[in-house]
Amino acid sequence: MIVMQEELNQFERSEVWELVPRPQNQSVIGTRWVFRNKIDENGIIIRNKARLVAQSFNQEEGINYEETFVPVARFEVIRMLLAFACFKDFVLYQMDVKSAFLNGFINEEIYVEQPPGFQSFNFPNHVFRLKKALYGLKQAPRAWYERLSKFLLKKGFKMGKTDTTLFIKTK
């Protein structure tokens, strides 16, 4: 229960959604909890994790999303980058953003059910209108990638020509 509450607290801090009356002529996507245990090198559980995800199989193409988008770096580009960085003695940085998709804005009007086990006592029939992407949504990878790439481009990075997940800044 504690890790689920922590996940919902992160949603509040990130302003992911707002509780609204259920719309009459709009589909509502279900939500579910996904649980995972983080294990140390000895196989001992060191942390429990919970993530609330949208049940994206409820989404209808053309209504809830246009296409599936997955920003994946090409293996050849990564190998070339690492070889070049070693040769030139460059410093490379890798990012791992906790709750990355919660930082991506969505343009569509999307509603999700209240999380199982955490329904509002005062408004049990209300749903959440999403302001930002939620794991499991077809829009989530594109929303996060668009926000990240706009930020990096504004900061003077250039997008790779063969691999658009590679951003380079030269001084």
Could you characterize what this model shows?
- With 171 residues, this protein is of the alpha+beta class.
- Helices cover 25% and strands 20% of the residues.
- It is built from 3 helices and 8 strands.
- It has a 4-stranded mixed beta sheet with strand order 1-6-5-2, with no helix packed on it.
- Strand 3 and strand 4 (45-54) form a beta hairpin.
- 15% of the residues are buried.
- Beta-strand residue percentage: 15-25%
Strand order within the widest sheet?
A: 1-6-5-2
Helix/strand order: HEEEEHEEHEE
Name the structural class: alpha+beta
User: How would you describe the shape?
Assistant: globular
Q: Indicate the mean pLDDT.
A: 82
Based on the structure, what is the oligomeric state of the protein chains?
single chain
CA radius of gyration is 19 Å
Task: Work out the number of β strands.
Answer: 8
Number of helices: 3
The largest sheet is: 4 strands, mixed
Which spans of ≥5 residues are poorly predicted at pLDDT below 50? 58-68
Helix content: 10-25%
Termini separation = 48 Å
Domain Reverse transcriptase Ty1/copia-type: 15-170
Pfam family, one: RVT_2
Protein name: Reverse transcriptase Ty1/copia-type domain-containing protein
Organism: Vitis vinifera
Give me some keywords for this one.
alpha+beta, 3 helices, two-stranded antiparallel sheet, single chain, 171 residues, globular
Short description:
InterPro entries: DNA/RNA_pol_sf, RVT_2. With 171 residues, this protein is α+β, with helices and mostly antiparallel strands.
Topology:
Elements: H1 2-14, E1 17-20, E2 28-29, E3 31-39, E4 45-54, H2 75-88, E5 111-112, E6 127-130, H3 140-154, E7 158-159, E8 167-168
